[in-house]
Every structure is written in C-alpha cells, then in structure tokens.
Design a protein that fits this description.
Number of helices of chain A: 11
Shape of chain A: flat
Structural class of chain A: mainly alpha
CATH architecture of chain A: Orthogonal Bundle
Structural class of chain B: alpha/beta
Helix content of chain B: 25-40%
CATH topology of the largest domain in chain B: Rossmann fold
Strand order of the largest sheet of chain B: 5-6-7-3-8-9
Oligomer: heterodimer
Strand content of chain B: 15-25%
CATH superfamily of the largest domain in chain B: P-loop containing nucleotide triphosphate hydrolases
Number of domains of chain A: 1
Largest sheet of chain A: none
Radius of gyration of chain B: 19 Å
CATH topology of chain A: MetI-like fold
CATH class of the largest domain in chain B: Alpha Beta
Largest sheet of chain B: 6 strands, mixed
Number of domains of chain B: 2
Radius of gyration of chain A: 26 Å
Chain lengths: 276, 262
C-alpha cells in the first residue's frame, strides 16, 4: 500500500527535468578540470608567475598558431610531415600485410621467414638510429626507413595471427559448399583475419607517429619536427608548443580514422551491433 | 523404401561398401555396409564416439575411408549435389543472411534464396547480419543455404542439438516438410531417438563400428509422439542403445540401476 502511494506521488515533469539536467552535467563535468587548468595557466602567464621561456601563455600559443597558418608556413610543414608518415605507413604496412598473409597462409613461408622476422623484431627500432644515419644519411630515405620499420611489425604479427586463427569450422563449411581455393581465401579467410589486421593497423599508427617524431627530431629541413627544432633555436616556446599540439592532433585524427575504418569494415561484428 | 504419398524423388541413392575408417589411430568404423535408397530419410543413432558423424563426413568427403567405397547413384540430370548441415550454423558473420544463403552461387540465385528464406520463415531477415539472429534462426538460415541449390542429398550432423526443445520441434517439422516436398535423400545423425523416429523412414544404430540395428519406421506421417506405436519403438531402440534388457526391480520394490556396458 505504501509503495503504491509513493509511486503515485512521483510527478513526471520533475523526473524529466532532472534527467536532462543530469545529462548536461555528465557531458560538462569531464571538461571542468581541463578548463580550470587552462584558466589557471593563463592567469599564471599573465601575472608573470610563469616565465615565457618555460611555457608561453595559452593566448600566445593561439596567436602563434593563427600567424603560422595565415602565412601558410604551418600547412607546408603539416603536409610534409603527413606525407612522410603516410608513405612510411604504406611501405611498412604494405610489406607487413603481404608477409603476414604469406607466412600465415603457407607453411613453407612460415618456416622460412617467421623466425628471422621475430629475431629482427627484438631489436628496438630506435636503437638502430645511428646505423640508419650511417646507411641512409639524414635525408628523406632515412626517415622513411624508420617510419616503415615502426609500422611493419604490428601489422605483420597481427596479420599472421589473424590468418592462423580463422575459424576452421567456417573453412570446412566453405569447402563443402564447393568454394575454390581462391574463393575460400576471399570469402572466408581474409574477412576472418580482418579484425586482427585492423588491430595491427591501429597499433602501427601509434608507432608511425613516434618514429616520425624521432626521425624529424634527428634531422630535418622541413616538417613539424623541423619547425619545432628551429623554434627551439630561437627560444620560440609558443611555436614549439604549437608543434607538439599538432603532433597530438594528427595522432588523434589517425586514431579516429582507424576507428572509423573498423566501424565500417567490422559493422557485422557482434560487438558493433546496437544494444538490444 | 519410400513412404506412401510421395510425388517424386529427386534424391540420390547411397551405397556404402565395406568401409573402414580410422581416426587418430583408433578404428571408428569397420566393414561397414549400408544401402540407402533414393529419397529415403535415414536416421543414424548411437552413443558418442560411435562413428556416426565420421560416417556422415566421409560421405561428403571431409574424411577419407582407409578401405571400402562410398558411391552415390545417378540422378536424372547432371551430377548429384551433396550438402551438409552442422551442429553450429557456420554462417559467415561478415555476410548478410541473403549472401550467406547464396554462398558459392552468386547473385543470380538471389530470387531463389529469397524464396527459400520465406519457406523457412525468415523472409524479412534477408538483409540482417547473422550476429543479431538467435540460434534457431541461424540454423534455419543454414538449412536454407543447404537447400537453395536443390541438392539430391542432405546430410544433417546433429543440427538441432544446440537448440531449445520447442525450437527443435519446429525445426523437425520444417525439415520434414521440405524433405517431403523436394524429395532429396536425407541422412540425419542424432543422439535423440525420438527425433530419429519422428523424421526417419529407417533408424540405424551404430555400435562397435558396425550396424547393429536397422529398424523400419512404419508409422504414418506426421509422426504423433503420443502414438503407442511411437512410444514402443522409442523404448525398444533406446533400450538397445543403452544395452538394458529391462530395468530390473529388486526385492524391496526399488529400481536397481544396472551398470551400462560401454
């Protein structure tokens, strides 16, 4: 009797209003700390408590960004860096994909190549830098090599693993339905390996940026890294921060892109179905 | 032996001649002989590991007998088509239901695929991903896929084992109807004796790698489970499977559980 009375007493209007207020609150709250930090930072810079040589004010960074983009300098550097990254990704990723498909699908290829590749993998790419400079000098091919190396292994390993772990029951079923070897590969094995391959792609995108940053830091005549290093020589901390933020932004964009790719190519996956 | 009232038979006869199959060093079937008539519905029962699945898989070529031959008869037009249904639906998750049904056949069969999806009651699900279907629905898609190309022989490897009891009964009716109307030969492997009697013209029991029981089911279709003939048959076959003569009762009136001999 009591429970019924209580239920009757809940006016629907207040509940609805509370829900939308809750929603706004949930959306806004995560931003509270960053915004507060930003305000604190600007205040510290404006009052001189934060020396410009240490860290510029947020306003200075924004101004710097506007200046650089207006003059077109920013976009030139961004374009150069992005092209390097994409080229390295294409080479390293493409090679990793092909070798992964090869060793995953053919026993002889696995026996021949996998051990060698695993041994190379154990060498940290960054440790190879002095050797890379010796081999390639400090021009574009050195940077390409480093980025490609960083991208290669995640793609290779996950492609190999993806092919090996395709559901054998599905392959068997495919055979009973008269699928040719090529059809089996195209309809069953490759799509089955795709989730794993995309995981490899996502990992390799992270490595791609790291290797690019390192490669551009060592030596460059263009690109975001060059812009940042140059700014350091002239104590332009605001430009340096712009460079760092650009790397972060591009990294985030790459991650969003790979997530979007996954969401499209894997839209059949149980994990991507709308909650029932 | 065809049941009365069948209009035609598109099925193919199967001849299994002195077949021996060993798996992993263990002899599963030996000197196995069975003849299945065109259009017949045969159920194979037996304990786990008796070789019934192995037999089915060797008919479609997934296993190779060490000795003996398995041959299919001829049919009116072309080569006999064999299809198999597994215990799990084995649908390709990255293809929509319609594309799964037309697997290996191409878009030309889309209309036929839609027709058979309607027959299994899934016409409105043709463009869904398998991930959102229930187990029973997935098995129905698998059945549609197996039948879209009108095979002469359908092999069923415990296809209803993973389904709940009610869905199982619905699927049995569906399979029986499709078999009756299309006339293919059907070989069903099942551990469920009642299911075997419901669907088959003949029930075969495999034990020790050989046929030890070959029971013709003379009941009218559709088989009524309440029918005393049904119950008697089921009892007889089940007791033979479990190797009980009767359930013995001791002097105190309680039932003694006899140790089953494997």
């Amino acid at each position: 009797m009591n429970r019924e009375a209580k239920a009757e007493f809940q006016p629907r209007v207040t509940v609805q209003a509370r829900n939308s207020l809750q929603k706004i609150g949930e959306r806004a709250l995560p931003w509270l700390v960053p915004v507060a930090l930003l305000v604190l930072w600007q205040w510290a810079s404006s009052t001189g408590r934060l020396p410009i040589r240490f860290l510029p004010s947020p306003r200075a960074i924004v101004n710097s960004f506007i200046e650089l983009s207006a003059s077109g300098e920013l976009w030139t550097h961004v374009r150069v860096s992005t092209m390097r990254a994409l080229l390295g990704f294409a080479v390293g990723g493409g090679l990793g994909l092909i070798l992964g498909l090869l060793t995953g699908s053919f026993r002889w290829a696995e026996t021949l190549l996998d051990t060698t590749l695993q041994m190379i993998r154990n060498i940290p790419a960054l440790a190879l830098i002095p050797l890379v400079i010796l081999w390639f000098g400090i021009d574009e091919s050195a940077k390409l090599f480093l980025v490609a190396l960083g991208v290669f292994f995640p793609v290779y390993i996950n492609t190999f693993h993806g092919i090996q772990s395709v559901d054998r029951g599905l392959i068997e079923m495919g055979r009973t339905y008269g699928l040719s070897r090529w059809q089996l590969y195209r309809e069953v094995i490759l799509p089955g390996a795709l989730p794993s391959i995309l995981v490899g792609v996502r990992f390799s995108l992270g490595f791609m940026w790291v290797m690019l940053i390192v490669a551009e830091t060592i030596s460059a005549r263009s690109g975001i890294g060059y812009m940042t290093m140059n700014a350091r020589d002239f104590m332009q901390t605001d430009v340096m921060v712009v460079g760092i933020l650009l790397y972060a932004l591009l990294g985030k964009l790459a991650d969003l892109f790979s997530k979007g790719l996954e969401r499209y190519w894997l839209r059949w996956h149980p994990a991507y179905q709308p909650a029932r | 032996m065809l049941a009365e009232g069948r209009q035609y038979s598109r099925g193919v006869a199967i001849s299994i001649d002195d077949v021996s199959i060993a798996l992993g060093g263990r002899t599963v079937l030996q000197h196995f002989n069975v003849e299945i008539a065109a259009g017949e519905f045969v159920a194979i029962v037996g304990r786990s590991g008796c070789g019934k699945s192995t037999l089915l898989r060797s008919i479609i070529g997934l296993e190779t007998p060490q000795r003996g031959t398995i041959s299919l008869g001829s049919i009116a037009h072309g080569q006999p088509d064999v299809r198999i249904m597994f215990q799990d639906s084995r649908l390709l998750p990255w293809k929509r239901v319609l594309q799964n049904v037309t697997l290996g056949l191409g878009a030309a069969y889309s209309i036929q695929a839609e027709k058979i999806l309607a027959q299994v009651g899934l016409a409105d699900r043709a463009h869904d991903w398998p991930a959102i279907l229930s187990g029973g629905q997935r098995q129905r898609v698998a059945l549609a896929r197996a039948l879209v190309h009108d095979p002469s022989l359908l092999l069923l490897d415990e296809p209803l084992g993973a389904l709940d009891a009610l869905t199982r009964i619905e699927m049995q009716e569906l399979i029986e109807n499709l078999w009756w109307n299309r006339g293919f030969t059907a070989v069903l492997v099942t551990h469920d004796v009642a299911e075997a009697i419901t669907l088959a013209d003949r029930v075969i029991l495999i034990e020790g790698g050989r046929v030890v029981l070959n029971e013709f089911i003379d009941l009218p279709r559709p088989r009524a489970r309440g029918n005393p003939g049904f119950a008697a048959l089921e009892d007889r076959i089940l007791l033979r499977v479990l190797q009980h003569r009767t359930f013995p009762v001791n002097t105190s009136g309680t039932r003694e559980i006899k140790q089953t001999i494997l």
